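Appendix B, example 12.
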Amino acid sequence: MTDVFSAGVLVYRRVEAGIEVLLGHMGGPMWAKKDDSAWSIPKGEYVSEEESALDAARREFTEELGLPVPEGVWTDLGAVTYRSGSRRKVLAVWAVEGDLDPAEVVPGTFEMEWPPRSGRRAEFPEIDRAAWFDLTTAADKLVKGQRPLLTRLIGQPH
């Protein structure tokens, strides 16, 4: 099994009811009709010999959302390892407090063959929407492998 390294940034904000996190709904036709377990922390792959995980997290956040990472203190939430198809994904994540407007998101795009085995290439948004969620709802929305990061966020001093 091949390891794929990814890095991301979990932006959170404090509201009267507690903490909310900013998540992106994964773009592309395979995720279009899914909601629970179809959202992700803004993240992306990198080659560990060419770029640090921290630099990749910052770059990928901006590529996926079209917005800079909010200024603030970065808290290392560590890494989670989970399966993504036939690969094992190692995802390193940092949390930073901020308050971005999801309406300002201008997602990056990716290209893939669609429909499958058609020989045609189509372009899709990396994420098709972003939204704020309380931690309970976020646990349902996030892909399963990223859910432990919410528990780690809760354990950090805010």
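The chain has three helices and nine strands. The mean pLDDT is 94.
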